[in-house]
Amino acid sequence: MGEICCLEPSLQDIAALVDLDRRSLGGLWSGATYGQEIASPNSCLRMLTSSALPSPCVIGLGCYWAILEEAHLTLLAIEPTYQRRGLGQWLLSQLLMEARQQGLQRATLEVRCSNQGAILLYQGFGFQALGRRRRYYADGEDALVLWQQALQSAEFQARLVECRDRSRHRLAQQGWTLKG
User: Fold this and answer.
1) What pLDDT is recorded for position 26?
2) For residues 154 and 179, what is the distance between their CA atoms, to the nearest angstrom?
3) DSSP letters for the chain
4) How confident is the model at residue 2 (pLDDT cuts 50, 70, 90)?
5) For residues 9 and 159, what is the distance between their CA atoms, to the nearest angstrom?
6) By residue range, what is the domain housing residue 113?
7) What's the pLDDT band for 180 if we cut at 50, 70, 90?
8) Tell me, what's the pLDDT at 1?
């Protein structure tokens, strides 16, 4: 199918990021917000690009904020037509590997209670529900607060490598080559 790269976006990528955000997250962040994330030294924003289409395009994006010893995952999005193929798992593994390399100890995130696919993805990385935010989303839906408490542990390192390798194998079976 083509090559997929995990890259740090630039200001020139903002329009593509906003477009993917609108299609996959319903317009969570604005162009100005993406510009702030690109400029912030505490933000790790990554995008997946694909050479499978006539011109390289953004098919995934993910972000975390490094806050003290914690990676706060703020978004993870995959182009709707490419969801459920292993791209989210691969992108999440890339983000968590970077968080480990930064020496971060824990990771947390909020996820819609109704988003069972995402919850299962995060549970595969050892995230556990440790709280709930009532009416967290604009439509009134609650969010589960998930935590992964041991990013630096040998057990988590092994799980991370296993998840990355599983997604790499799954994507290779579909004809994707991963770079980055």
Assistant:
1) 87
2) 25
3) -EEEEEE---GGGHHHHHHHHHHHHSS-S-HHHHHHHHH-TTEEEEEEEESSSSS-EEEEEEEEEEETTEEEEEEEEE-GGGTTSSHHHHHHHHHHHHHHHTT--EEEEEEETT-HHHHHHHHHTT-EEEEEETT-STTS--EEEEEE--TTSHHHHHHHHHHHHHHHHHHHHTTEEEE-
4) confident
5) 27
6) 2-179
7) low
8) 63
Categorize the per-residue pLDDT at 138 as very low, low, confident or very high, splitting at 50, 70 and 90.
confident
Radius of gyration of the chain (CA): 16
41 burial (CB, 10 Å; 0-12 / 13-18 / 19+) is exposed
- CATH number, domain at 40? 3.40.630.30
Per the DSSP assignment, residues forming a β-bridge with 45 are 63
Give the chain's end-to-end CA distance (angstroms, integer).
17
CA dist 78 and 176 (Å) reads: 15
Number of domains in the chain: 1
